[in-house]
Amino acid sequence: MFELLGIPPQALFGQLLLGLINGSFYAMLSLGLAIIFGLLNIINFTHGAQYMLGAFVAWMLLNYLGIGYWWALLLVPIAVGATGIIIERLLISRLYHLDHLYGLLLTFGLALIMQGLLRNEYGISGLPYGIPAELAGGTNLGFMFLPNYRGWVVIASLIVCLGTWFVIEKTRLGAYLRAATENPTLVGAFGINVPLMITLTYGFGVALAGFAGVLAAPIYSVNPNMGADLIIVVFAVVVIGGMGSILGSVLTGFGLGLVEGLTRVFYPEGSAVVIFVIMAIVLMIKPAGLFGRTA
Predict the structure, then answer these.
(1) What is the rounded distance in angstroms from the CA atom of residue 27 to the CA atom of residue 51?
(2) What span, in angstroms and rounded, lies between the C-alpha atoms of 78 and 96?
(3) 180 exposed, middle or buried (CB, 10 Å; 0-12, 13-18, 19+)?
(4) Which of 176, 217, 203 is nearest to 44 (CA)?
(5) How far does Cα 259 stand from its chain's mean position?
(6) Alpha-helical regions (H) of the chain
(7) Cα(102)–Cα(88) distance, rounded to whole angstroms?
(8) pLDDT tens digits, 209-240
(9) Which of 94, 139, 191, 227 has its CA 20 to 30 A from that of 15?
């Protein structure tokens, strides 16, 4: 069928794979944004910079301390999440009772500071980060050649996204988190430390961005602008899925990645804007987003 359209099957599946990989990062980053906004009502514009920071910390661990990829997957989210906790305690916690605009302006300024510091130190040419030896090479699936590392990225992101959704939506801890955002006074009356829960929630959302940064480091060059190039698209994904919708962010992230990949095949000129076109259409039809709840 596709050969009749002049499209080799290998090109189609290759672009679908690329779209699925991009969708993996869209899903993980939009998931972190959805958690922070849905539970804390903070529009975290620093998220792209924290994703970039995750890639840089992984690169620093490897080049300065000799700590490889697998340990970085564990250590980097903890380190980046800890920086998020510090930011939340020192700065963001002062804005919870103010308009969303103040939080957006603060986090936007923090993102510029983080990008500027790393740009001044390392430049913008990009730093290489090698694929771990265990995931080198690829697998011939018959209809296409699948690089092992890219397959790992898709699997890892699915596990993290679905695991996070399960914890927040299906466990007692997730119920406490949701209840704390609705009625913190009542939840506090049961002896739960609501401020600590909010801080840890923000730190976890930031840790997801750090984890995504480690996964991205071997695929994309590690540079200070890698988060700025992605965060606008991720915000569009969150808006389409529904601000604060956990499952909506995951499904929309992967789905829009595939749509972007298909657009590259059939209409390459439109691949850079297709997500924003979809966002405009969704907002006209359902302003709360595909999975968002209307007020």
Answers:
(1) 13
(2) 24
(3) buried
(4) 203
(5) 18
(6) 9-40, 47-65, 69-90, 100-122, 148-170, 172-182, 184-189, 194-216, 228-241, 246-266, 274-285
(7) 14
(8) 999 999 999 998 899 999 887 888 998 998 89
(9) 227
pTM for this model (two decimals): 0.91
> How crowded is residue 92: how many other Cβ atoms within 10 Å of its Cβ?
23
47-65 vs 194-216: helix axis angle to the nearest 10?
60
Task: Give the separation between CA 204 and CA 191, rounded to whole angstroms.
Answer: 22
231: exposed, middle or buried (Cβ count in 10 Å: 0-12, 13-18, 19+)? buried
Place of tokens 């997801």: 208
Structure token digits, residue 190: 């049961």
What b/e readout covers 253-271, taking b as 16+ CB neighbours within 10 angstroms? Answer: bbbbbbbbbbbbbeeeeeb
pLDDT by residue (tens digit) across 4-18? Answer: 455 666 767 778 888
Q: What sign does the CA torsion over 273, 20, 143, 140 have?
A: positive
Question: Rounded to whole angstroms, how far apart are CA atoms 152 and 286?
Answer: 35
> Are 154 and 24 within 8 A, CB to CB?
yes
Alpha carbon distances (Å) from 125 to 76, 106, 221, 224, 228: 23, 28, 8, 9, 15
Q: Which residues pair with 127 in a beta bridge?
A: 222
